[in-house]
Amino acid sequence: MGWWPASYKNPQSAATFECLHNFHIMNLQGKLAHTDFYRSLEQISDGSGLESFPDRESQFMVMMREWRHIKMGKRFRQAHDPTGLSGTQEGLCAVLCCACPIPNVNLPEDWYQAPTDKKWLYSLLISKDANFKQKAWARPNDHHDAPLNPRWGCTVHHKPYLKEITKYANQDETSHCVGFSAIWDANNKKTKGLRATGVSAVTCSHHELVQPNGLGDLQVGEQYGNMDYILLSSVLSCVLVLIIIFYDIACQWGKGFCICMEKMPECLHLPEALKIKFKVPKFHLPAHIEKCFAPYAFNFTESIGLTDGEGIDGRWDIMDDHCNHWNWRKTVHLPESLLKKLLKAISEAVVHRLAFEAFTDGLKIHHSTKLALWESQVVVWEEGRDSFCPYNLPVNTITLSKLKLELAAEEHQKEVDGKGTSDHTISGMVIEAIEIEEVQCSLIATLEEKNLSKFQQTTIQKS
């Protein structure tokens, strides 16, 4: 049985390896708080609660922090590194996604020379988002303890991160997307007295593993300075040719990304050869204005498939531990997950392919000229040679309310001119006809239902 001391200088208390191991697993899997575990040990020792024990909770927390730190180094083979734990590189102790493309790991040697129609296989899809439930209050008695592993795992290197984002403390980001401005304003409220208003994370979109150095705290909502730094830190080691980034406000944030990156430290600059695309997750896209739909829609983007981009929605040492535990559990169950997705993709691909070919054949017969023009426009738009988006549909500006208003204004003008002689005007008849048509459509839809209630049947008979 091993013993772990609370201090290496004249230790007075210790915990067994088994005790630390048990709490470690319970905390990762069940999110059991250290206080609850410690009080449980007291009740196991004395179920009556009458005996008084020395309070060793703070020592237990120190031991657990050291235990997590050493365990992380052990898992990633740092004990065998000549430089030891102190020589650990940034992001080295993060569980990587083994299903995402990683050169020299799971890609062929000539992946860089792949033909154009195969390059999408070697693109990285990542999602970024913020969680404002993870708040941290600023307290006068806060201890400024240096993290044991400040940059090894899934969190950003905190010291340079905080130094950099102070430059953007008063950054004003005006949103031009009306549909998302309400949510944006809500995220920037209630920041008084908080050391951190939330947490931002970057994950791989397909498999939802947290990226190395892809986690950081937020000070005032989703400020671009914070989000840019965390994203750049997470993809710094990427040597692929294409990254597709999914973000709730990609329509606004993506426009100035390159300009903001130039203001960041040079070590965070991405290579010029790296191509970046910005998309909005499927669930969040309806909240945007209409002109955002086609350019940022998943369904109109090549090489994405059925990805929806929605997979992502304490002390950083512990956050690293929890993120790595999440990544590892996802990795263990990856074969079953990928097999399930593959079987669904094969069956769906056959159905959609047949439907698409039948639809295309019909267009070739009746609209061959327009079809050829549209296909050429899509190719030009996907290659980035034209800003015109063929997926943008013409907006129908005529509504029933506008039509009623125009007809009413027309009838009023006739009365002013002395031309209105009948009680039943033409505009009134047109509006009444439109309303009758709406009732008929509603009635037809109701009749198509199989199981009608007694009330519905009575309403139909009266109609």
TrEMBL record:
Name all CxC2-like cysteine cluster KDZ transposase-associated domain ranges: 1-48
The domain of life for this entry's organism is Eukaryota
Q: Does the keyword Transmembrane apply?
A: yes
Keywords (A to Z) from UniProt? Membrane, Transmembrane, Transmembrane helix
The record, for InterPro entries, names: CxC2_KDZ-assoc, KDZ
Transmembrane ranges, per UniProt, are 229-250
Protein name (database record): CxC2-like cysteine cluster KDZ transposase-associated domain-containing protein
Task: Supply the source organism for this entry.
Answer: Moniliophthora roreri (strain MCA 2997)
